[in-house]
## 1
Amino acid sequence: NAGVTQTPKFRVLKTGQSMTLLCAQDMNHEYMYWYRQDPGMGLRLIHYSVGEGTTAKGEVPDGYNVSRLKKQNFLLGLESAAPSQTSVYFCASSGVGRNTEAFFGQGTRLTVV
Amino acid sequence: AQSVAQPEDQVKVAEGNPLTVKCTYSVSGNPYLFWYVQYPNRGLQFLLKYITGDNLVKGSYGFEAEFNKSQTSFHLKKPSALVSDSALYFCAVRDMRSDKLIFGTGTRLQVFP
């Protein structure tokens, strides 16, 4: 049982380049989330999904897109990376009802130069 | 809109002393509340949750939290701190209308020998 797996773990991008971060969960969770963590800012919700084929905007969605074509995968895309998107990105998944605590991946450290 | 406030950036306690990490929240309707811990270069780990029922919730590693509806607070506590408890702690709230899971800015706990 791997839990939540993020790929890649590290990446350096040049300004204007694009990339996709992959999140995979093997717990059959309905909900999945993408956060970014910056010093002093805590975790800020970028986008989230409440089920296969659904996505919704979080607190800081600008500059990012997401897709959830399969229940177990949640992709985060950066179409044209900017230095302000330098951050650590975390994916999480959770169940519904009382089993609603989120499980997190190990994070992706992204640097945009 | 839902929100979570952790008023202390840092909490320092001596080993063996009780610790409290504060959290207040704002959400429409009944909240689902959570505490997570993050060790350096790791993802977040779930500690405990409040869904309904007893206001005092017990979680992992001897931590507990007290839900206070009138004060909209969910403070994390431990009767006797350990040096190994030193980490970054996050409070989170789920808005049951939007299904967003929103985090506070985090509190760094330092337990000194």
## 2
Amino acid sequence: GAVVSQHPSWVICKSGTSVKIECRSLDFQATTMFWYRQFPKQSLMLMATSNEGSKATYEQGVEKDKFLINHASLTLSTLTVTSAHPEDSSFYICSARTGDYQPQHFGDGTRLSIL
Amino acid sequence: AQSVAQPEDQVNVAEGNPLTVKCTYSVSGNPYLFWYVQYPNRGLQFLLKYITGDNLVKGSYGFEAEFNKSQTSFHLKKPSALVSDSALYFCAVRDWWDNFNKFYFGSGTKLNVKP
């Protein structure tokens, strides 16, 4: 149980393109999902907390207009990287929790490469 | 402020030997502690958690961790390492008071198990 699916797993696109990443909880409902960014050989950096039916809460230093987050249902959150540039290239990971005191369950990540 | 420290970037151990991956934490209130493992180009997989109760927690794949409140530590252990245990390990902490289940991750420790 507690499976989180993330799609796509790998995307390569041209600079200036907008890219959407989906995060789905397959067998549970997630009122809260999280979006992380991971640089090579580094830890996860929390970008934002996504709450179903309300605006996401962004961490300090994360551009809201650059990284658009939508949590339209209890099983789906999306991250859109708008007008992506090479510096946005990274590994993006989503997670979701099944309950208040439960671990976060992670998707397999999306490798984003901007040319 | 909440934080997690993993003092070792890398741990090397021979197959069959016991392994320890160190983690210390700092939180304002009571800690919830977690260990995750990450394989290349994958998301994080949950190993074990400490919420309350016995200080020795058993988790997946034969791993266990010991919560030590006085030393604010939560070291990951396994009695006999396998080559397949080679991966990146992350310790994470959540403050009991944090309703949004925000996790703070350590910098990660690369475990190398040699045959």
